[in-house]
TrEMBL record:
Family matches, as Pfam families: Glyco_hydro_3 (PF00933)
Gene this chain is encoded by: nagZ
A molecular function GO annotation: beta-N-acetylhexosaminidase activity
Name recorded for this polypeptide: beta-N-acetylhexosaminidase
Keyword Hydrolase: yes
GO terms for biological process, alphabetical: carbohydrate metabolic process; peptidoglycan turnover
EC number(s) per entry: 3.2.1.52
Domain Glycoside hydrolase family 3 N-terminal: 52-324
Species annotation: Azospirillum lipoferum
Amino acid sequence: MWGVWLSVPDFLGSDSVRSTPVTHPRAVVFGCAGLEVTADEAAFFRDADPLGFILFRRNCDSRDQMRRLVDDLRDSVGRADAPVLIDQEGGRVARMRPPHWPAHPPMGVFGTLAAQDAAAGREAAQEAAWINGRLLAHMLTEVGITVDCAPVCDVPVEGAHDIIGDRAFSRDPAVVIDLARATADGLLAGGVLPVVKHIPGHGRAFADSHAELPVVEADRAVLEATDFAPFRALADLPLAMVAHVVLKAIDPTAPASTSPIVVREVVRGPSIGFGGLLFSDDLSMNALQGDPRTRTEAVLAAGMDVVLHCNGDLAEMRSIVGAVPLLSGAAAERWARAEAMRHAPEPADIAALTNRLAELLGTAQT
């Protein structure tokens, strides 16, 4: 665990002794600009003390380089177990790519396999999804990464923007549930925490939230039956990322990530009942309005536990850090529960699993 959570009075008497230090990093995850930590970045991270870091394609060149980068990021905050995140889904969304790392299929391939046979196909797809998660975890732990922003639990609809597309397992919520669960279990078996995304659902969006704000017109009954269903079924998992998507039937004025109504009634409420830690989606995305600090304040006010700022822009990071509180209270407890689920990778024959995955997917890839 990266911190010990104790109840300590605000004012300690002269004879009072705090025998165990309490670690409260700031409730933000930052990116960095390149392949190594600059002196300015290291100094900023030391003072800001973010909970952790997130890596992108610009940060990934080779195994040795990534191990150094991850170590240096952790050194900058003085916590050897500070979480390091990455979006390594497979397919289009893969920060670590050949030739240094194997290519993994998009999640839609597993849904294709499930659809080939009502019973045998579903079973084979679940096995393949678990193996894929386990192999992703192996690749990530080799370079010190402890959190994967996967699986995608969105349920696409006909005509929706392809920003999700084959990143989703299926248009059938039941298939999404089975395959997302298998993927998450594979990641956990390999010592990596999964992040379910994009709660409460991005599959019905007809716009790319990286570029503009999507507005979902579906009524609440439809959302409950489809979009929310996978997140409700996986509500026991430790981490989730909240979408920058307006659900017009619930709060027509704000995306889920800045809507206290959606967070209270849907994400934390009976519609989904998610009890884990909530990350905002990236503050840099154009779905959000205002300057970086305004965006930060909005997602925190809505109920996000941790702010995600990914673009590595040091000036932007400096502008928001004062708006981010220390990770404490319920948010700290949620993170502690998440970290308690992470363990050393279970033994696995990686070569045998790789061969088995290729065998299972041999007829599914298109």
